[in-house]
Amino acid sequence: MNIHNARPVVLCLSGHDPSGGAGLQADIEALIAQGCHAAPAVTALTVQDTVNVSDFRVLDREWVMAQANAVLADLPVAAVKLGMLGSIEMVETVLDLLIDHPHLPLVCDPVLRAGGGGSLGRDDVGYAIRERLLPRATIATPNLPEARILAELPEGTADQCAEKLLPYCENLLITGGHGDEYEVHNRLYGRDGTQQTFTCQRLPGSYHGSGCTLASALAGRLALGEALPSAVRSALDYTWRTLRDAEQPGRGQYVPRRLPLDFCS
């Protein structure tokens, strides 16, 4: 019998991507790589490939509540990661779950669009995430286009978006992968006025699931007890390596290689 101490558990509330590039599969692989146990609760089903998303369906509230409550009642959850929610109703569902667990670190990845540009949220889901979930998040991890949607600033810079969003969120990591600078600038902002920029080499190509990978890795580092600035750096470094080693399994974007080739050998 295996008597090793259990790995930290991270509850993931995210959508399912049948291509395996993003969503819950990305969460699971990234968390395994951090030495954590992923407990995935499905919030939505999508029709997508490595090129783009063509449709999605948000699950019923009762199904999502039942999945998450089964995990929370049985496993010692150490952190929560939010991915695709897809509707205002799902935002409210997740909020109801979180109210009973205010002590858990919460990483909110405001998934609003797929890498190919297709929408992954109906109605005013971005507004609902900003108003209802960001105040409960330990950190939110939007890319710049998502930050602009949340901040309602179509042409805003990262600094301008942060100024608009920090009244809602304690910490904000705006990633810079959608820019065109030689180096990627990932900016961490704190409500207390602190700011830190993490730079890395920009890699060629576009990637499917990089945001899910980063947010899940960050949730894993927090579940392991790592302090926030260090956890951000660890998650960014890990994500960059998965992109450096990415593969192109289909006709579209590259998929991060989140686990080593010899993982199961």
Automatic annotation (TrEMBL):
GO molecular function: hydroxymethylpyrimidine kinase activity; phosphomethylpyrimidine kinase activity
Keywords, in A-Z order: Kinase, Transferase
Highest rank taxon of the organism: Bacteria
GO CC, any one term: cytosol
UniProt GO BP: thiamine biosynthetic process; thiamine diphosphate biosynthetic process
Entries under InterPro entries matching the protein: HMP/HMP-P_kinase_dom (IPR004399), PM/HMP-P_kinase-1 (IPR013749), Ribokinase-like (IPR029056)
Pathway(s) served: Cofactor biosynthesis; thiamine diphosphate biosynthesis
Name of the protein in its database record: hydroxymethylpyrimidine kinase
SUPFAM superfamilies per UniProt: Ribokinase-like (SSF53613)
E.C. number(s) listed in UniProt: 2.7.1.49
Coiled coil: none
Residue span(s) of domain Pyridoxamine kinase/Phosphomethylpyrimidine kinase: 17-253
